Amino acid sequence: MGREERLELIKKIQEIRQSKVICYITGDRENVSTRIAPDVVRIFYRHLENLQPCERLDLFLYTRGGDVLTPWRLVNLFREYASYFSVLVPFRAYSAGTLIALGANEIVMGKMGELGPIDPSVANAFNPQDPNNPAAKIPVSVEDVSSFITLAVETCQLKGQEQLESVFSHLAEKVHPLALGNVQRNYSLIRSIARKLLRLHMSADDEDLIKDIINNLTEKLYAHNHMISRREAKQDIKLPVVNSSTELEKAMWELYEDFENELNLLEPFNPAALVNEHQKKVDFEVYGGIIESFAGMDCFTFSGTAVAVEILPDGTPNVNINMKKQSWKRII
Predict the structure, then answer these.
(1) Could you count the other beta carbons within 10 Å of the beta carbon of residue 181?
(2) Which of 28, 103, 123, 248 could form a disulfide with 244 if both were Cys (CB 3.0 to 4.6 A apart)?
(3) Residue 152 to residues 4, 140, 175, 332: CA-CA distances in angstroms?
(4) Cβ neighbours around 206 below 10 Å, total
(5) In the chain, what percentage of residues exceed pLDDT 70?
(6) Angle, nearest 10°, between helix axes 161-174 and 177-199?
(7) Do 117 and 221 contact (CB within 8 A), yes or no?
(8) How far apart are the C-alpha atoms of 81 and 270, rounded to whole Å?
(9) Cα gap 28→142, rounded to integer Å
(10) What is the arithmetic mean of pLDDT over 267-293?
(11) Which of the residue ranges 131-145, 180-194, 213-227 would you say has the lowest mean pLDDT?
(12) What is the pLDDT of residue 161?
């Protein structure tokens, strides 16, 4: 299918939901993956300005995550255009995607819908060096640092100032103190953002529930790659999850599969396969993400050149890849 077929599915979802729908897909195709980032805010603004006013706005979302600050800005922008904001989750909406969902009045999930923990990993110049790649730094998980302290205090039952100082000193020898400071800042930041997003549609009387939701999505899931089903999200975490109807689920999944095919998510992008002994230089342009609505279509575009330096005896080309540009591009 193409855009015309997707618009028919978007129209069907809008009719079922009595809403306006904007789709946001950050692709996870190997070598051309994309993530939630601040550069989408202006694109969403243009789409929203060109859509007819509505009381209900739905974000059709697929993502593995990204920048944790962007959800707060996006949700506030969406709420400028609609008093009732919902997130439609046909499949994955992890990490920063889950944060966006926290700002929604309702989260509509299909049987395959998944949310994820919101505990981030942080990376800066003071992070430990990767022993396998001296030029790289190892991300530090906020919850891993917290769990190390918990291990020492609760599991190993270390007590007294001297023992605790020894534990912390050992940690600071392995992880730079400024990196640990960054961990603490992010620990506080993620909880602050999650609380503000929930407070957009919950009252002060729900403060205990808000705290429980945040604790469940950070320290109580224990694994960053934990996949939260709609049953767990609704019954255990107490999020405002709504199960999609049979008709809506079918339309949501068909729309997701069309985006999956459009971005070729199931097959790694291999620019070396584009060249051969007859065509040794190939310019390529490949899409890694999509924002689409009746107002238009924008794609995150990777463009570059693949050049065969030599053809090996087995016929396999030795290829140099020059990635020239990575940015959002307005298609329609």
Answers:
(1) 12
(2) 248
(3) 58, 18, 17, 56
(4) 15
(5) 83
(6) 100
(7) yes
(8) 41
(9) 23
(10) 91
(11) 131-145
(12) 72
Q: Cα angle at 77 between 76 and 78, to 5 degrees? A: 90
CA dist 167 → 36, 53, 149, 219, 231 (Å): 36, 57, 8, 21, 39
Q: Which two tokens stand for residue 53?
A: 């006013």
Residues 6+ apart with CB under 8 A from 206: 198
User: What is the pTM (predicted TM-score) of this model?
Assistant: 0.88
Model confidence band, residue 169 (pLDDT cutoffs 50, 70, 90): confident
CA within 13 Å, CB half, 141: 15
Cα separation, 325 vs 330, whole angstroms? 14
Name residue 41's amino acid: V
- Which class is domain 3-116+227-264+286-295? alpha beta
Tell me how far apart the alpha carbons of residues 293 and 188 are, in angstroms, rounded to a whole number: 35
The pLDDT assigned to 178 comes to: 59
Domain boundaries, the chain: 3-116+227-264+286-295, 121-183
Residue 125 has pLDDT above 70, yes or no: no
